[in-house]
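Before relying on records like the one below, remember that each one covers exactly one chain. Contacts with other chains, cofactors or solvent are not represented anywhere in the record.
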Amino acid sequence: MDQSIDYRELNERIAKQSSFVDLLVKGMDQTIVGQKHLVESLLIGLLADGHVLLEGVPGLAKTLAIKTLGELIDAKYSRIQFTPDLLPADVVGTMIYSQKTEEFDIKKGPIFANLVLADEINRAPAKVQSALLEAMQERQVTIGESTFKLPSPFLVLATQNPIEQEGTYPLPEAQVDRFMLKVVISYPTQKDEQKILHQNIKKEKINVSSVLKPEDIINARNVVHEVYMDEKIEKYIVDIVFATRFPEEYGLKSLKEMISFGASPRATINLALASRAYAFIKQRGYVIPEDVRAIAHDVLRHRIGLTYEAEANNMTTEEIVSEILNAVEVP
């Protein structure tokens, strides 16, 4: 570890600066029962400035979670329901001719918000996907000949239903790679489901009041960048990503036939950024290997290509990431 850094002072500062995380979690708990991992993932996306793809069957509170987060941050929130007949103009906006001024006026679309919920994203055709791609990567939108910057913070939180394949368009690899995290949401426990049932039977209206401003999130992101990451942790992250590309070099010869392509350099960057954000959420001023392991599945599961052989053996990217984490030496 770097001796020039005062870890106690850094820890205290991070703990102080990250105190709002408890307020956000408490606010989310008012409407979202259980789903701790979902809430944590949304916060990581928010603090690490990365988009989040949520996958799960309908009715698991994906939309509600995103809407609640928007209310807690007092941020501009918009929802786009993706359908096969959606046009790029429905997302980014369009030019409308005004008879009054005899000129074209620009009407901005729902993408101009801090939190954008792209509901059932895999239902939209390729043209819409490419329009969203520019917004996600460049944080800007082109309408006609004009280019507009999107507001800051800007976060796309997309949902997709893994069951339905009818009328859906698989997301291109280039777009999937733009998502920092792909979070798979499972069913709640029996205890949690009983609590959900109880809440809905009582029909209590839960009012969520904002605890933060968008500027607070931008300030928090600057503090997240101060979270210390040792060179050994950096090497550990690079090793994990390289093991997805050259598994045989890490004693995982059996995986070579299962992986058609490994994770991109964007995965390395996102693994580091998300680890820092995770340490920040845990109110710690430095990253430990457990932080990397905690978010590795979410960062890597959508960035590894499976061969036909892997699919024939019912091998999943989850299992591949788990094997890699068990094989790569922990610093």
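The CA atoms of residues 181 and 299 lie 5 Å apart.
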